[in-house]
Structures are given as structure tokens and as C-alpha cells.
Amino acid sequence: MSEVTPIIPQATSKRLPLYYRFLQNFSNAGKKRVSSSELSEAMKIDAATIRRDFSHFGALGRKGYGYDVDNLLVFFRSALDQDEETDVALIGVGSLGTAFLKYNFQKNHNTRIVVAFDPKVPKEGKSISNIPVFHPDMMEEMIKKMGINLVILTVPAKAAQEIADRLAAIGVKGILNFTPARLSVPDWMRIHTIDLSVELQTLIYFIKNDVKDSQL
Asked: The pTM is what?
């Protein structure tokens, strides 16, 4: 019989990079084992939620012992493909896009921005923070040439759907959307939208109403 791949809840999947980051912190501090309570205190996530998340992946710990930090790091590194770098394209080099280029993810993660596009760039392109930036007329050609499947979108909202359509047409698999536009894409394409204005309004609501959500 073929092995059945467990279905991991989306909320759990979103927390995996956080677990990996905090486990790295514990490892860097010389800690060899950690309990769900200690992770809970550090991450401000309920311990029961942590144990439930880990249970989706089998027996990661032992009762009365907790979790071996190095073993967990190996497991989450593999689960998150931390040993394999992912090339990313950035579309839209305004204030937010420029900040992404200056930071770039390769410093702390397994992803790196390798090319960017912006309509204000001359046809021959230019370099920003050592990253080549081209006019959007070159977008399809360069993304296919570089084999990129993940794009960060920081364009004006009115341009977002057109760009998404062009990306879908060349088979890009995922968009991290920083525009307020709700994009319509094929079922096989993944969209993660981060609307900064909505996040800010949510935070304001929580502050005014003294609402705390340990699962965020």
C-alpha cells in the first residue's frame, strides 16, 4: 500500500516557519531540549495548540522529556525545504518594493529576490541593491528564463489583476500579494494576501477592545 500523506491544517502550516525560527533561537542559546510550555512562553501560543500542531507529524517528542531541539530543527528544516533556496521575483519597486530589495530574504531565510520589475525602469534595466530591475515588458521572458515560480506583488491595486493574469499565463505557482486587490486566479495558483491597512485596522480594533488572540 502507498503511504498516505497527512493533511496538515492551514493554520498549522502557517505556524511552521515560526516554530523553526524559535527553535533556532533555543539552539543558539545552547538548549538541548524544550517543552511545549517553554515554546508556549516564548512564542505566546497556547501549549495545547503547539502539541496539536506537532501531533500532525507523528511522535516528535516524548512524554516527560519534551522535544529534542536538534531533532526538531532537522525535521522542520526538511519540512520547510530550508536547504533548498527559492528564487523570487518582485513586481513593483515603490517604497515597499525598494524596502524588500534592500532587505532581501536570503539573509535570514531560504528565499531570495533575484529579479524585479517596475514600469519606471528604462528598457535596458538597472540595478538596485545589486538586484537587476527590468521594465515589465520583460517580465514573462525573464521569469520563464530564470525558472521562477514565486512572485511578490507590490504594484498599485488597479494593476494587480492584469499582472496576476500575465503570471498565470506563464505558469507561476504562487503570489505573495501586498495589494488590497482580491485577485482572481486559476485553482492551481496559490495567493497569500497581506493587506497592511486591514492588518492595521485589526490591530486598532484589538487595542480598543482589549482583544487578545493567542493563535495569531
From this structure: 0.65
C-alpha–C-alpha distance, residues 212 and 210, integer Å:
7
DSSP, collapsed to helix, strand or coil, labels residue 163 as helix
Q: What is the pLDDT of residues 155-205, one digit of tens each?
A: 999 999 999 999 999 999 999 999 989 999 999 999 988 888 877 887 787
Q: Are residues 33 and 90 in the same domain?
A: no
By residue range, what is the domain housing residue 105? 86-198
C-alpha grid cell, residue 61? 517528542
Supply the Cα-derived Rg of the chain in whole angstroms: 20
- Is 93 found in the same domain as 193? yes
In a domain, 203, yes or no: no
Residues 93, 177 share a domain: yes
Binding-site positions for NAD(+) read 92-97
Query: In angstroms, rounded to a whole number, what is the distance separating the alpha carbons of residues 181 and 194?
Result: 10
- If one counts the domains in the chain, the total is 2
Residue positions in the annotated binding site?
A: 92-97
One domain for residues 17 and 101 = no
Q: What is the pLDDT of residues 80-92, one digit of tens each?
A: 765 567 899 999 9
CB-based contacts of 110, cutoff 8 Å, min separation 6: 80, 81, 82, 83, 84, 85, 86
The answer to whether residue 181 sits within a structural domain is yes
